[in-house]
Design a protein that fits this description.
The chain is α+β, with helices and mostly antiparallel strands. It has helices spanning 9-14, 50-62, and strands spanning 18-27, 35-44, 66-75. Helix content is 20%, strand content 32%.
Length: 93
């Protein structure tokens, strides 16, 4: 039995992945007039979001609930550091 290597969250972020949140509104199967909400987070590559697209494809094929809308937000957690030039220094004794 071989094991597959899964990169850590830090490694994924260094490869350009960002934390993505999908806010999904869907029609309840038994009560189509009512909307239910589902929130899902994963590390994904913006702006294509292949992991979220794969999940939405799975939803459409395997889950009875019809999608109403999907809102995706993402945030890079690791990026270039902020650099500021110090204009003066102060020494305290």
């Amino acid at each position: 039995m071989g094991t597959t290597y899964e990169p850590s969250e830090l490694e994924r972020q260094l490869q350009g992945y960002s934390l993505a949140t999908a806010h999904i509104l869907y029609h309840m199967p038994d009560h189509p007039g009512l909307l239910q909400t589902f929130i899902w987070q994963t590390y994904d590559l913006a702006p294509e979001f292949p992991a979220i697209r794969k999940f939405i494809g799975f939803w459409k094929e395997s889950i009875e609930a019809r999608l109403h809308s999907i809102e995706v937000a993402h945030r890079k957690l690791i990026g270039p550091g902020e650099w500021r030039n110090a204009l003066s220094t102060l020494s305290l004794h």
